[in-house]
Amino acid sequence: MNQSASSVSLNNATKMPILGYGTWQATDAELEAAVEAALEAGYRHIDTAYVYENEKVIGKVLKKWISSGKVKREDLFIVTKLPPGGMRPEGVSKFIKRSLAHLQLDYVDLYLIHVPFAFKDIEGDLHPMTSDGKINLDLKTDHIGIWKAMEEQLDAGLTKAIGLSNFNISQITRVLNNARIPPCNLQVELHAYHQQKELVDFCKKNKIVVTAYSPLGNPGLASFLDRFGKKVELPNILKNPVVNEIAKKYNKEPAQILLKHIIQRGVVAIPKSTNPQRLRQNIDIFDFSLDDSDLSKLNALDAGVRLLDFDVFSGVKEHPEYPFPELK
Ligand code: A2P
After folding, report:
1. Could you read off the pLDDT tens digit of each residue along the chain, which spans 328 residues?
2. Which atom of ligand 1 is found nearest the CA of 275?
3. Domain harbouring 278, CATH code
């Protein structure tokens, strides 16, 4: 696939492939072969995070591909994120350097603040707990100070671009009003049942490209949360009859329809799959367009259903920067 024909321009004059490879919930054992398969399939944008604990295996594959000349570093778009335990100005340089070492890279293409809330920085414990079983929050979170430290990483050449993830409109506005270098990207949950129309409009007005995580509605999420003792019933968008009817019409799979719907809005999507057939399917969406009537049908599926509220971290809603006040 020619990814240069399917990129969005960022406000720092670089380009970001509109379809990326998501790696959250992928374990090392399956990921090495999957990242190889993703690069073979044409993915050049890979999304990871310090807290996914899979940067090293991704770095191993990238090193192999770059050093053998199969891919040029400048043709890749690598995204990683500051962990909640690094949410203080001095944490930014500490954690971006660790991520770069894991990824075996000199720079990333985009570095994001992963979440607006903060945990205590306890070495070796990404999700520290208090004795009463709650997540160990750091309540003194200073987004402006952290953003200045993000800008310094860009000045130092450790990242080409900086952005935010899981921030709400008022939190983004505060950063925008105090930034020397404005954020160029916002990564949030976005799928057919949670289309984030107000947030996407706000970002367009402010020249912030939006990236959709869980673009397929994360059908593996319930079993993932179950591992943390949280039992939830979640809707499966891939089984939605409207999506399936449209898929039949275009002779495509439901996942391809959901992804196309997102990228036709100018929103970047980062579906995760460790299955070679499905990951190839997810990037094979550049040979058709949804027509206006199908776009309208898909737009009408929006139900404001948020799958991820971070409540898996018990007590997180007590943080002053918890981003979803309506869920408190
Ligand atoms: P798998 O890795 O076994 O393919 P999201 O990106 O919305 O978080 O969704 C990821 C989940 O969706 C994973 O459980 C992944 O499983 C599954 N998935 C990814 N691509 C497809 C596809 N094309 N069809 C069906 N399920 C998919």
Report:
1. 444 459 999 998 899 999 999 999 888 889 999 999 999 999 999 999 999 999 999 999 999 999 999 999 999 999 999 999 999 999 999 999 999 999 999 999 999 999 999 999 999 999 999 999 999 999 999 999 999 999 999 999 999 999 999 999 999 999 999 999 999 999 999 999 999 999 999 999 999 999 999 999 998 787 777 777 777 777 899 999 999 999 999 999 999 999 999 999 999 999 999 999 999 999 999 999 999 999 999 999 999 889 999 999 999 999 999 999 988 8
2. 4
3. 3.20.20.100
In a domain, 313, yes or no: no
pTM: 0.96
Instruction: Output the CA 207–ligand 1 centroid distance in Å.
Output: 29
- Tell whether 154 is covered by a domain: yes
What atom of ligand 1 comes closest to residue 278's alpha carbon?
A: 23
Task: Read off φ and ψ for residue 32, nearest 5 degrees.
Answer: -60, -50
Question: Which residue puts its alpha carbon closest to atom 6 of ligand 1?
Answer: 271
Rounded distance, CA 12 to CA 27, Å? 33
Best residue among 187, 275, 277, 285 to mutate for probing ligand 1, ranked by most atoms within 8 Å of CB = 275
Q: Tokens representing 9?
A: 């321009």
Are the beta carbons of 308 and 217 closer than 8 angstroms?
A: no
Residue 209 covered by a domain: yes
Closest CA to 316 of 137, 170, 152: 137
Strands (E), the chain: 7-9, 15-17, 21-22, 45-47, 77-82, 110-113, 162-165, 185-189, 209-213, 268-269
